[in-house]
Design brief:
Radius of gyration: 32 Å
Subcellular location: Cell membrane
InterPro entries: Aminopeptidase_N-like_N, Aminopeptidase_N-like_N_sf, ERAP1-like_C_dom, M1_APN-typ, Peptidase_M1, Peptidase_M1_aminopeptidases, Peptidase_M1_dom, Peptidase_M4/M1_CTD_sf
Oligomer: single chain
Structural class: alpha+beta
Family: Belongs to the peptidase M1 family.
CATH architecture of one domain: Sandwich
Number of helices: 35
Distance between the termini: 32 Å
Keywords: Aminopeptidase, Cell membrane, Disulfide bond, Glycoprotein, Hydrolase, Membrane, Metal-binding, Metalloprotease, Protease, Transmembrane, Transmembrane helix, Zinc
Shape: globular
Strand content: 15-25%
Helix content: 25-40%
Protein name: Aminopeptidase
Length: 1171
């Protein structure tokens, strides 16, 4: 098939590396010698002059060939294995370069460049001291003009790396002003002063020296044996006077393998105390053995222990106070002043111009007094609201900083690379509680105003600004302690407190699991998790204070489905995985975001297994969830590489997509499968240990994993396997391969690769179009032959495998790799025959992969749909969720493309024949009982999917049942003043279906009833399902009302976080689908102005509103994009939707008539019901 936008590599054909053992993991061995070239001889008779000419031409040709070979090809190595045969096939000796043709990139010429968006590297933050006073309504009286604002002072200790007369910080919508007296620059020096010091006997001194924080109360066996030989220093940051103490917490760069460093604070280290300063009155802290601070960001609070918990006296101790000279930091004016301020709104930066330069290698403290807004846009510091049990509206303040919103709360170095220590003090209304990243140092301390109290938090570990967090609320918490002594709390509004217990248990289990898995202790003293009524993302991994939407943290078995319970477990596991991978070690820049999110996604699966004791079978679930999402999204031209340049501000928010999360986790899982679990863990431990409290790039991880690879484990070409080289081909170019199988003779098949694309007509972005590796990959091949797993081998270009005519070959066994497989017709037929005969010969994950590959290849017009549909013939015997889920997804594509055409009836009849055998076995009475049994999770999910599909094809037995449930178990059992979560008797697992069907088939009375229930509901899970049910209405006037309500930025009827969900729900309604795009076009300018600061929210609204199929749709869409070029050009989601629209149109043109006729014929057959 002709393809655009990729190159075919001109490489020689590879042979197998030394094969690993049959379990698919590594095996070591000796590489074979490279294959030798064989010269062919021939004879030519000619005249001498002609011979000379031919000789010169030959020499020129040889030189040209050598040059081409040198620059284009790699050497060929022949490393024979059991099934390896060297292949020479001229079908793969072509190189195609896609020219940069087609429509040029639509780039805003006025947009700032990538370089302009970055802060200069002339300064580096060491320490922040932030005091903030948010005016949160509903608690105390204050001047009206201060409502929903905050006042703050921040002192930033900075180190100068290059001489500069400017301080450039990230800042957005902050009240900085032109009063230059609010900006002061200080320097600090070590001076000897006399202080009063406690003197205690030997017993007490020993107690202090051996004290440790709860975070290090328990360590791994390896940690206990490791030694640390480093001086501990404190950060002079914003303290007027801070004393220095020596300890032994710094990592030794020259430690031996037998004496590795500790993974947390040393058990015997000297505690380090740090003081908060006021700008006028210095304070002191005693210390001994004072030394100069050099590596402040590395050592400031990494080894800090809590003196409060260490200073326990025995009955024999005696105290006295004596005068002692100690050396302390003293702050003094620097003699440098701010002479002017430039605000760069388009760059989200503020420039402080100085009257004198800051000297290189010097440290300064820059103090800023400023104000800012408490927004309602779910970014920076924002306001959340809810209704309490008395019906009163209550308020809380929360923060969301990732990716670039810390600058909305504090002027700072708001890039991941600039790690620093944070000291935070919150002044908040009486009756509220303040929670931040670190444990409290003082709580509810009185202030000059009796209505306000102060909470001071201990210094954080060095961390990036996007991890800073603060919550001001009257929430309550449940608390427990991990086996390592970490204080663990889960917070919620009072009414939901009973729903936090599952998350608390899950969090403790998984935090302990990760500490053991990484072999590195959790480095903080406490871990908090907050459930907020309003939160932009599903959750955010702020170090020590993870924030969640209520639905992703709270679990109530009386309203939450099994999948929602799983979602809570997965989200908790994902965010706590970040506490090491992302927080302890952080990406250097957003182009490596995929490493943070991909790894946390991967680790969420074993994390959930730890939480559920393996009952959720997460290795299977991964195949249907993350891997499937990755394969779908990355098959389009509008995808992107995992690692790609951040060229504009929108690129940062757009990087938070399925490629980053799902493909990232799928590639990491594939590497884990190649290395094996033990070696993978060894590499991770080395990486985390080497880069803890630092920043890293993806190649740092590959290098650490390389250290775990045995010297005699080989790549495809016989050289030692190199993770760096292997991973580059999967992360630095977009897409993935499809492996095609063809038979050579009765004993052999050949496999080769090419890039898989759903649509060959759409071109990639110019910067991705000609991929670095020509869209070729080194592919690990896991396969089974007649049900027996064979050793893993490699595919580079093409390969032969010994397979007899009657043998059953299944590639990508257990769906370990990120690729699809397309067999020849006999190969597919052999698989279908086996599934019909005994499907259990093929494992569950492989069955699911076969079904999904077949349907996707058919959708892409690379396999007859008849082949994919023939695979489904065996499903009447299938009892596992995973294969069924893949088959139903394939069927959903058919339903979507058949839309409401008359031929849809033929498709529905065929689907009925597939699912009816399972549907008839379902006991509806057990639905409200079995769902709480985790052991039956997969069985229950399969039953719910079958019921949903049976109703979706409008089978009366199903639709009548759910309509009766709506009337009898909801409307008749709930009074108008009662919340549905308290009175509904509809089985929890099918409430979404029942509520939607009740609205769809009901009238005005049913709609008004559910509207009242929506307004009264306080449980977010139940409120969400009612909201989505309201979108099922078939009344056009009501749909338009819903759309107007959702698009209204100021309306609180639908929370900001839920607006995209409402658009998506209306778009899923066949009638709503016809309305929502028109509404979107008519109101786009208003929508854009309202939500342009919420990029993720707006992208989700767009994708939920645009679902097009015809030429007319596409023409209308193109006109819309042209008309609104200014506001749509930088949103890639519009290009994604255009590609999907064209794919839909192509599908209908290629498949609709053929499939409609095929289904009609199948249904007319006497055996159709048994198909």
């Amino acid at each position: 098939m002709a393809r655009n936008g990729f190159r075919t590599a001109q490489n020689g054909k590879e042979t197998l590396a030394h094969p690993p053992p049959s379990n698919g993991r590594m095996e070591t061995g000796k590489p074979a010698e490279p294959a030798k070239d064989v010269k062919k001889k021939g004879q030519v008779a000619c005249a001498s002059s002609t011979a000379l000419l031919l000789f010169l031409l030959s020499v020129g040709a040889v030189i040209a060939a050598v040059l081409i070979t040198f620059f284009v090809t790699k050497g060929i190595y022949n490393h024979p294995g059991d099934n390896s045969v060297f292949i020479a096939d001229d079908r793969y000796e072509s190189t195609t370069l896609t020219p940069d043709e087609g429509e040029p990139e639509d780039i805003d010429p006025n947009a700032p460049t990538a370089e302009q968006l970055r802060l200069p590297k002339t300064l580096h933050p060491i320490y922040y001291n932030l005091t903030i006073k948010p005016y949160v309504p509903g608690y105390v009286e204050y001047p009206a003009e201060k409502n929903l604002t905050f006042e703050a002072t921040v002192a930033i200790k900075i180190r100068v790396t290059e001489l500069t007369d400017k301080i450039v910080l990230s800042a957005l919508k902050l009240g900085l002003g032109n009063d230059l007296s609010k900006y002061q620059i200080f320097q600090e020096s070590l001076e000897e002063v006399e202080v009063m010091q406690k003197s205690v006997n030997v017993v007490k001194r020993q107690a202090v020296e051996n004290a440790t924080t709860p975070a290090t109360a328990t360590t791994t066996e390896e940690e206990e044996s490791e030694e640390e030989e480093e001086e501990t220093t404190t950060v002079a940051g914003t303290a007027a006077i801070i004393t220095m103490a020596t300890g032994n917490a710094t990592e030794s760069e020259e430690e031996s393998e037998e004496e590795e460093e500790s993974e947390g604070p040393s058990m015997n280290e000297t505690t380090v105390a740090m003081t908060t300063m006021t700008t006028t009155l210095p304070t002191t802290v005693e210390a001994s053995n004072v030394t100069e601070a050099d590596n402040v960001t590395e050592t400031a609070t990494i080894a800090a222990a809590t003196a409060d918990e260490s200073e326990e006296e025995s009955e024999e101790e005696e105290e006295s106070e004596v005068a002692k000279n100690v050396t302390q930091f003293v702050r003094r004016p620097s003699g440098i002043s701010v002479k002017s301020i430039d605000t760069k709104e388009e760059l989200e930066q503020v420039i402080f111009n100085l009257d004198k330069p800051l000297e290189k290698d010097q440290e300064y403290v820059f103090e800023i007094k400023y104000t800012g807004p408490i927004d309602s846009q779910l970014a920076g510091m924002y306001l959340s609201h809810y209704t309490d049990s008395d019906g009163d509206i209550r308020y809380a303040a929360a923060t969301q900083m990732e990716p670039t919103d810390a600058r909305r709360m504090v002027p700072c170095f708001d890039e991941p690379e600039f790690k620093a220590v944070w000291k935070i003090t919150a002044i908040h209304p009486v009756g509220t509680t303040a929670v931040s990243n670190s444990i409290e140092q003082t709580v509810d301390e009185p202030t000059d105003d009796k209505n306000w109290i102060k909470t001071t938090f201990k210094e954080t570990l060095p961390m990036s600004s996007y991890l800073v967090a603060l919550a001001i609320s009257e929430f309550e918490y449940n608390e427990a302690t991990t086996k390592h002594g970490i204080r663990f709390r889960v917070w919620s509004r009072e009414e939901a407190l009973n729903h936090t217990q599952y998350a608390l248990n899950a969090g403790i289990k998984v935090l302990d699991f990760f500490a053991d898995y990484y072999n590195i202790s959790f480095p903080l003293e406490k871990q908090d998790m907050f459930a907020f009524p309003d939160f932009a993302a599903g959750a955010m991994e702020n170090w020590g204070l993870v924030m969640y939407r209520e639905r992703t943290l709270l679990y109530d078995p009386s309203v939450s489905t099994p999948r929602q319970k799983l979602s809570v477990a997965r989200t908790v596991a994902h965010e706590l995985a970040h506490q090491w991978f992302g927080n302890l070690v952080t990406m250097k820049w957003w182009n490596d975001l995929w490493l943070n999110e991909g790894f946390a996604t991967l680790m969420s699966y074993p994390g959930v297994n730890a939480i559920s004791d393996g009952k959720y079978r997460m290795e299977e679930y991964f195949v249907y969830d993350s891997q499937e999402n990755a394969l779908l999204r990355d098959s389009h031209a509008t995808s992107h590489p995992l690692f790609f340049p951040i060229d504009k501000a929108e690129d940062v928010s757009e990087a938070f997509d399925s490629i980053t999360y799902d493909k990232g986790s799928t590639i990491l899982r594939m590497i884990r499968e190649i290395l094996g679990e033990q070696k993978f863990q060894e590499g991770l431990h080395s990486y985390l240990k080497k880069f803890r409290f630092k920043n890293a790039v993806h190649k740092d991880l590959w290098t650490s994993l390389n250290e775990a690879v045995p010297e005699n484990f080989y790549a495809w070409d016989g050289s030692q396997f190199d993770v760096v080289e292997f991973a580059a081909k999967w992360t630095e170019q977009m897409g993935y391969p499809v492996i095609e199988v063809r038979r050579l003779d009765t004993k052999r098949v050949e496999i080769h690769q090419r890039r898989f694309k759903m649509d060959d007509q759409t071109l990639e972005k110019q910067k991705f179009r000609n991929a670095k590796f020509w869209y070729k990959w080194d592919i690990p091949i896991w396969y089974t032959l007649n049900g027996e797993e064979k050793p893993m081998t490699w595919l580079h270009e093409a390969q032969q495998i010994n397979v007899g005519m009657d043998d059953l070959l299944v590639l990508n066994a257990e769906s370990r790799g990120m690729y699809r497989v397309n067999y020849n017709k006999p190969g597919w037929n052999r698989i279908i025959d086996q599934l019909l005969k005994d499907h259990t010969v093929i494992d569950i994950k492989s069955r699911a992969r076969l079904i999904d590959d077949a349907f996707t290849l058919a959708e892409a017009n690379q396999l007859p749909y008849e082949t994919a549909l023939n695979i489904t013939r065996y499903l009447s015997k299938e009892t596992e969720l995973l294969p069924w889920a893949m088959a139903l997804d394939g069927v959903n594509v058919l339903l979507a493309n058949f839309r409401e055409e008359p031929e849809l009836e033929h498709l529905r009849t065929y689907i009925k024949s597939l699912v009816k055998p399972l549907y008839e076995k379902i006991n509806w009475d057990l639905l409200k009982v079995n769902y709480v049994d985790d052991d039956k999770f997969f069985q229950n999910e399969l039953e719910y999917a079958v019921i949903k599909k049976f109703c979706e094809i409008r089978e009366s037995d199903c639709t009548s049942k759910v309509q009766d449930l709506f009337q009898e178990k909801l409307m008749e059992t709930c009074t108008e003043k009662t919340m549905a979560s308290e009175c509904s008797q509809v089985p929890v697992p099918i409430r979404n279906l029942v509520y939607c069907e009740g609205i769809k088939m009901g009238g005005e009375a049913e709609y008004e009833f559910m509207t009242k229930k929506y307004r009264a509901e306080s449980v977010q899970v139940e409120r969400d399902r009612i909201m989505n049910a309201l979108a099922c209405t078939r009344d056009i006037f009501t749909i338009n009302k819903l759309l107007a309500l959702t698009a209204d930025k100021n309306s609180t009827e639908i929370r900001l976080q839920d607006k995209s969900s409402m658009f998506r729900s209306i778009g899923a309604n066949p009638i709503g689908k016809q309305i929502v795009f028109g509404f979107f076009q008519d109101h786009w300018e208003k929508i854009y102005e309202s939500f342009k600061d919420q990029q993720t929210l707006m992208r989700n609204m767009i994708s939920g509103s645009i679902d097009l199929y015809t030429n007319r749709d596409i023409t209308q869409y193109e006109s819309f994009l042209t008309k609104h070029k200014r506001t749509t050009r930088n949103l890639d989601v519009f290009k994604i939707q255009m590609e999907l629209a064209k794919s839909n149109k192509e599908w209908i043109e290629h498949h609709f008539k053929e499939l409609a006729e095929w289904f009609k014929k199948q249904n007319d057959k006497p055996t159709a019901s048994a198909a």
